[in-house]
Amino acid sequence: MNANHPAIPVPYVDAAQRARAGQLGMWTFLATEVLFFGGLITSYVVMRVTYPAAFAAGSRHLSFAIGTTNTLVLLTSSLTMVWAVALAGAARRRAAIACLVATGILGALFLALKSSEYHDKFVEHLVPGNAFRLPAGDPPALQIFLFLYFALTGLHALHMLVGIALVGWMVVRLGRTPAPPPDNAPELVGLYWHFVDCVWVFLYPLLYLVTPS
Amino acid sequence: MNETARNLRGMVGVFIALAVLLAASAVLSRVLSGSLATATGLAIAGAKMILIGVFFMRLRERPGLIRLAALTGLAWLALLLVLVLADYRTRSWHGRPAEMSDAIAAPPSGNSP
What we know:
The complex is a heterodimer of chains A (213) and B (113). Chain A is mainly α. Chain A contains 6 helices and no strands. In chain A, helix 2 (52-61) packs across helix 5 and helix 4 (93-123) packs antiparallel against helix 5 (142-175). With 113 residues, chain B is mainly α. Helix content of chain B is 71%, strand content 0%. At the A-B interface, helix 1, helix 2, helix 3 and helix 6 of A face helix 1, helix 2 and helix 3 of B.
């Protein structure tokens, strides 16, 4: 306990310092996340300059409609998340909870659309491995594109699951009575959510919009 | 309360800009081709990332230290990409596995089992 601010735990002097420390910690974590995805992105770049025809062919096997819809779904979820953070900061708990629930639902919708695309790939035997069947007229390196597609979108989907769990935790936390002392936890969860959105913003052109050179 | 309402409305403007960029990206990918299409797609993704970072993640209001932390991940990723590509693009003597050709496979001769 802090003598001047009983609600602020040590080592923080006041709420503002605690908020800044939280922000710096989350941004540092997100920088490590950029490199977590960065390894796969680097593999993607090396393989794409090596097998350009296979990547253009692979992109044609993905659903442009699902990719574009999912991008819009995630951008919308970022809007509801930014509203939730602003409303939680203004102590409008019910409205903040409504926005968080909308964010979680949009996240689940994204995953549902992604699952349906995964399902199609399994049915079409386009999952790399023993059951893979190379479609006629496609280069064998198509498997490399599809491996990177599953690795990148799979890692991203894992982050979406964590994000949805964090949003659920925020809903429970904001719904508690008596109300917890206001802090910037919703803002930090929001930063994570927007980061996962940013990753998808890059995966969309890298996977769905590849054209032959 | 008024300030919150203004803030919420302002974020709708950012969202509309993001949606317009998405539409531009989707349409241009159908019109352009080759490296110009790739460059356009990535440039639009970069613009979206800047909008999300500056407004949704509020980097606009944050002190220099936080902005610096936000940029470090991208700086390291740029280093990784530049150094790895400098290696791969100049090392002409390493071969590709024969079964992973970029050329279209010849149609199978005879009936497959």
